[in-house]
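Homework help thread (please don't just give me the answer)

Our assignment gives two proteins as sequence + structure token strings and asks us to describe the second one. The first is just a warm-up. Here they are:
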Amino acid sequence: MPIEIPVGNQPQSVTLKLPPIPLRHGFTVCLRFAVRLHTQRPAGWNHYLALQLNGTFVDVTDEKHRPRLLNHSMFFTTTLPTERRVAYFSNRFGVPALEVFFMPDFNSVDERVQTEREEGGWYLLDVDDLIHSDAPNVLVLTNLALRHYWRRQPPPNLRMVIDYLEVGYVPITDVQVLRQRWFIKRHPLMGWSISSQNVAVTILNGGGMQVRVGDEFYFVESSFSFTNGDSIGFNKLTCTDSPDGEPSWRVRKCKRIEPNQLEFEMHGSVWVLRRCIEVSSKRITIRDTIVNKTDDVIGIIIQHRIIAREYPTAYRLNGLTDIAHLSRRFPENPTVMIAQQHSALGMVLEDNAMRVHHGSSLDANSVCVRDENFGLPPRASHTIVWALYPVTEEMVNKLRARVPDGTLSSRWYYAFISTVRCDWNVNFTVLGPFEFIDARAYQTDADVKKLQALLMRKRIKIFALVPWFEYYSSADMTREEYKRIMRNAMRIIKSVQPDALCIACLETNLTPVPVEFFKGTLPENLPYGRAGHTYSFGKPPGVYGLTAPSAATKLLENSPWRNSVMRGPDGNFLLDTWYVHNYGGKALNLMVYPALDNYWHQQMLDKIRFVLDDVGMDGCYIDQFSMAYGYRDRFTYDRWDGCTVDVDENTGKVIRKYAELAIISAPARKQWVQEILQRGKIVVANSMPAVMELQSLPIFRFMETQGYDPMRDPPGRFVMVKGHLASPIGLGYQWGYQLPGAPWVGKPKGARFFMRTVIAHLRYGLLYYYYGASFPASGEYGGEYGPLKHMFPLTPVELGEGYIIGEERIITCVSGEFVWSGNRAPTIRCFDERGREREPRVNVKRIGEAYHVTIRLKDWWEVAVLE
């Protein structure tokens, strides 16, 4: 009898009770079933099935870090450019979720799926470590698909169907055979070697790198594609005795340049690779210079893989653990890491092109990064810089926090990240708290008491004052009117708090223009605004990244905006008709990007100079600053950045050239920042750095983090790992945001909700900026903002799972022992689940030149600050 789970407003679950399942020698307990989201025809896929067995979510790997999934690899491939590889396991609502295909039966897989089609909707999972042999078993099946994904009108009879569900025994030998299909076997070989302290790098005859960390070996292999007529081939640098590729592909001219540097060449038919490897005490730097020997633009699919000798004891893909593949989504954290028993090896990308292009994946005993979009101009060269970071037990033991066993597996990763942060020079002092404040609320002396009451409870250092400047909420406001409002607000704010920093709000990639600008080239029913509203122009809902009609594009081509507006693949300009609800149908936004030679860059410099010099503000907040997330506002097709192409995966030929906006806008955006910093002002920016030019600049950068349920234990959202290599800040939960399906929707959020959002950020080692949080001091939802009053300033020293250590203070939401350096014992404050200060439960000992502070908290519910 099939199990059918409806699509609801909240995740829907079915609970099955199973008898005890005795363990049998020589056998593994496995779970087998078929699942689909029932549709009339094959119609896609998504991560909609969560499995919970005896209270534990079934995730990517078992307790020995071996893949659970036995009848599939870690991911499948598709024909979609934005989803070339799709992991079977991913994360949804903070829990591991399994891929579900939309289809009318269990075998009719969407034709866009290219690999493993024969398995259809069938899954075979190793659950041996989760089964109770002497007590009943409870299996919970949860459908994570929600009605609002289909605008609350899902297709008729849409439901999740699970059938043929069995729990049974599979011979261990069969399980091993299934797993070995994806396991890569390598063993140490002799070659050209260089070393430093406990790390040795050996270049093998196959061109790969053998890395010894202490007594453990890692094998680093690379591959570079080439086109061979109408087919694609790969030249590989392998950790074997012989290279794998074209006849000319072999190690040449391998020589030691310095005691700690090796260099060699390998020749393909259309390009040459020159690799230089430098080993230091902290890192192994690789510089791959690729030279195009032809008169054509060539596309090269590039892959780097770290292979462990056994299944990993821990791994990270772009900072995440509960996924098996990420595609072109995390340039802010361009890292992978794999650990063995006594060491780990991390990889970080330092080349802009590969950084913004790359995806990452886990395969049994290896992690890899892959760039499927690299292009090289005729007769040109490009040097790709990347680095390997050995992590030893000694490095882990030097971390200044000892936290519960549940977080120990993350210590390899955070030791790796701490070293990269030092090398990238991103440990600058972060100021706060930060909050968006409406300047119009503080215009006269009568508003002083209102502000005093606010700041009595909610400490704020950085006031991001709205209305926005010449965008969104002030499109029709004159500069003189804006200046008057801001100067009045700054006078009131600084009369109450003299050290306040009042900053202007600017937008990176949207600028309003009147509808009349288009001279009738836009249809009257153009998608516009928000559902449920009426406007003098257009028809809701609007679209972010709407393709302009050809007539409107021609008009823009004859305007100063012609070199500044993003273009789609068809050559037409892109418009924003979503963030327009304040315009009332009178205006819409052009989607723009800066470059040193374009109109928008000069316009933005003029805006910055006006708010700083004429208005006298203390800095700027710049929204959507990285230009490296999403797809509608990430590319432009009217110019080429010299490195981004689409490559035909069958022939290896270049299909199309275009530009990553993060790359071509970097020099202009850097100039904006320098324009502000050279005046002694501050910069706050939304989104984390994605290119090296902006990585180390002292900008207070955060990412928006809402979209999770903070009442889930422990709380958090996977995007928070984007903050690990920059200023570690998250913009807190937008107070008006309602997460579809969450049990608290429609209720006041309150102090407990606020504290859990603070803790969600600390789970990833991040600080917290306000995003409109507001609740009473007393009553059912009452409490205080306690931890935020003692969070800043902070100069990062060490990030960890559940804590952050700074020069000025340590902040934690987990119990543990923390090392406090200095001549005086720290002041210790503890805050309960409502943000109210309580008596700390601590033990402080002076050991050598430091204080060792043991703190006991209600983990993931309370916060302690040492300062």
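The one we have to describe:
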Amino acid sequence: MKNYKKLYINLMLVATLGISSSCNKDFLDEELTTAYSNDYYKTEAGIQALAVGTYYQVFALEFGGEVPLTASESGTDEFHAGGDPSNHIWNSYAAGLNSFVTVSNANTIAANTNWDNLYVGIGNANQLIESATAIISSNDAIKKTALGEGYFLRAFNYLKLVRQYGGVPLKLNVSNTVELEFSRATAAEVLEQVIADFTQAYNLLDNIGAPAKISKDAAAHYLAKAYLTRASEINDSWNSATKSADLQKVVSLSDEVIGRHPLAGNFVDLWNYTVADGANEKLPELILSAQFNSSQLTTGGNNQHLYFLSTYDQLPQMKRNLAGGRPFSRLAPTYFAYDVFDKVNDSRFWKSFQTKSIINNKSGSYYDNGDLGIMYIMNSPSDTRFEKTKNTDFIIDSKTGKTIPSVYVAYAADNFGLEKDVRFPSLSKYLDGARIDLTNTKGTRDVILARSADTYLMAAEAKVRLAKVGGASFADALPYINQVRTRAGYKSGEDRSAYTDGSAAWTATGQAGIPISFIKENSYYESNNIPTSTAPTDLTISSISTLPAEDQAVISKLGYTNDYDRMLCLILNERTRELCGEFHRWEDLSRTKTLVARAKAYNIEAAPNIQDFHTLRPIPQTFLDAVYASGRPLSAEEKDQMQNPGY
């Protein structure tokens, strides 16, 4: 599946040539007899090629670019506006976020982009289902695998649609003519279809080829996610009849998946990317990934390495380089994302964020390339060591005795903070030094779509919800949470200052003679101001009445008092600690109806503007303007009726 983009392009080219050749038989006085028509999809080869193309449309095309940032991370408690304004509107919830989105520049994601992409994928999946169903064949690769993939891919996109927009039009067959009349199904109807499709996929697929191929476990994971969505607060006006049974299914499906996908031994193993298709992209924890590769024969690639990166290259003694990354700086972490971690005992913060860079553009005789050039001190609010947030040539590196050109402090006496500047610790889960050079945007590493740590936390959430309806105790969630937290602790003998990310995949050829700025070291000890230790740490939560201090701080800020709200808050916090930046957050907060409260509390640009109606996205105006009713375009009143409230 690593070459599915190349195969998809070839397939679409074949289809285009087939259509164009039928338009003019006299073209160059030749009759083209080798091009394919739609009859190609009636063959086993055509069906398998269509499956490859639909993988690309639904996974690689969607998750390789900027749409997931605007749909899933912007405007949440985890991330706020970075240094580049291209898509600030998706973070701020200002008036320009509507059925048409106010354009900042050519990189601004339009209101209809995600909607259109998802429906194109659904159209491809419909064709795949129809073709694999209609063909007379005893080949399991067609009748089970391709058909199961078709059902999964359709459900995957409809699940995203219903979690973003609520009820949407359901289109379940192939269009052979132009269709203009559509109505919105209810969220209940869409989720019923999603569950039916994922169930079909689960029954048809086996467990071969993960995470590159859709497997039975991938279907089980997303089926559990669909049930959990139906049981969430955003659907409480109609979900009471199915809630308890849905939550039981979340637990049983999650247990099944967890049993075959053990967590990686160390959290850093997930992000220790050194080469395309390397060991970290094949870990048993991974259930499904969007596939990318290092082939230069394909265009595009995984561009996520661009978007979470701070603009290091504009600071003194620094220069852009392949190992340092190309900083588009779309999103910056919030203080919630910093402070929700126990930064002494929880290794995940230090394995998710880059906090040091070395000089690679020395000027003068004082510094050498390789000296510490940038450091972020991620201290606690009670730390009184620092006067200023920004420290230029002031703080001394204990290893060299030299001042560090640029040091930024999370908590200093000036109360300036890290959210008013374009410098911040960069989320490092997507950094990619394996690109061919520093200007190239084509990333090579896969995007993880599903892993079993997420499955553990879905099961934990289901237990919390079951406790609310009398089907479990709140403490039943703790074993699932503690499995994830146990992996997050430091191991005996582990060097807490050690660090790596995908920048380590840099090559001398790619660096082209420019010194590297990447260093395999973090600011753990400078931030925590504690003696060196190699002792193991324990993050176990033993009682629901005594939650970690980091969680209690969030609970107090948001005003939660009862056990259900406190435990759901714990789950959402744990999801940030484990899954920060992995394109889950907006939908998690929307479905739990915690988006508004958390964005107001933690996102400085969103806080003044976000309102309750922002828990759903606007239906794109381009769709509303194109839809007909009874043979005529919709009236203004009918468009308003089809639009989500508030837009």
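TA reply:
I won't write it for you, but here's a hint about the kind of observation we're looking for: Residues 112 and 622 are 7 Å apart (CA to CA).
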